[in-house]
């Protein structure tokens, strides 16, 4: 199915679930968790979301955990799901022939006859995209898969547990159905997209989601402001969150340059929440109150979310959840820090040395003032 350019006013809104789909407000995993049905997002608990599944791949890192499982794969999602995470986050792009696939980078790199070449992912047909990397069928050999690091170095995409690339439809069918999906709508920061193209891409993703999600909780998120607004206009079933660096980087589009602009965009477009780089929150903790007063939900991402103390501080600040790479470690942290409140409700005593420390309001205020200085170090 090729992408067809249409005007947004001619696009039908997906306000109602097709008859062959069965939705509920939340799945069994969320019986005490998040309400993410019908474009709502309520936080009965602190959420942990696996970044690209069980964590992103930092191939140049000396930390083996950052290259243990191939990111954005069925294996990575189900590995994360073996721990008490609520969602997995992953990146979705649409191929030239209209198929939503899961892949983070804008370009796919390979090597042939000693020459490295790259192709834009969205200019590949599905069959070609799937020929890169390890193959799902026994005996099949895929094209080499390389990756460019932030400093421009090209390295082999070598991980301990590899898996083949996959489509969004495959993920819906092969990943534990009680595991929520945080679907990042991935676009290139360096391209100015026409509305017709954005609508075509979003339609393709929505079609697969409606046909396959069933009772699975789904959140859409994106750094692309126009895509976020359009996704909200096109449907009223799933929450839409706006992704922001929180002022850590400056972009041509001013809507991306601060948490204040993110709040403004969400309120004007009727979005449900913000996903901010955690440093943007820690350097400006007062914005948490503004976001909450605006009736918006707030999630965070970033390397600091792999630090248990940073996660705990966010819980105290009223943030709704964190996107993390170290899934096992952070789910253990969150489980422990939640124990005291659960034991208090049941009337049981607190276990010495476990759970969360107790802070007075004065101490918490001091910590919140101290955090911006610490982040700048």
Describe this entry's structure for a reader.
With 377 residues, the protein is an alpha/beta fold. It is built from eleven helices and 14 strands. It has helices at 74-81, 126-129, 168-174, 195-212, 225-234, 259-269, 278-282, 286-293, 308-317, 327-346, 361-376; strands at 47-51, 87-94, 100-102, 107-112, 115-120, 146-148, 154-156, 166-167, 180-185, 218-222, 240-244, 273-277, 297-301, 321-324. The strands form three sheets. An eight-stranded parallel barrel has the order 1-2-9-10-11-12-13-14, surrounded by seven helices. A two-stranded antiparallel ribbon has the order 4-5. The relative contact order is 0.14. GO terms for molecular function: glycerophosphodiester phosphodiesterase activity. This is glycerophosphodiester phosphodiesterase.
Head-to-tail CA distance between termini: 51 Å
Second rung of CATH, namely the architecture of the domain at 23-104 and 166-328: Alpha-Beta Barrel
Radius of gyration: 21 Å
Uncertain regions spanning at least 5 consecutive residues: 1-12, 15-33, 341-355
CATH structural class of the domain at 23-104 and 166-328? Alpha Beta
Tell me the number of helical segments per DSSP (H or I, 4 or more residues long): 11
Overall SS class: alpha/beta
Write the CATH fold name of the domain at 23-104 and 166-328: TIM Barrel
Summarize the amount of helix as a percent range: 25-40%
- The CATH homologous superfamily of the domain at 23-104 and 166-328 is termed Phosphatidylinositol (PI) phosphodiesterase
Strand order of the largest sheet: 1-2-9-10-11-12-13-14
Family: Belongs to the glycerophosphoryl diester phosphodiesterase family.
Domain GP-PDE: 46-334
Protein name: glycerophosphodiester phosphodiesterase
EC number: 3.1.4.46
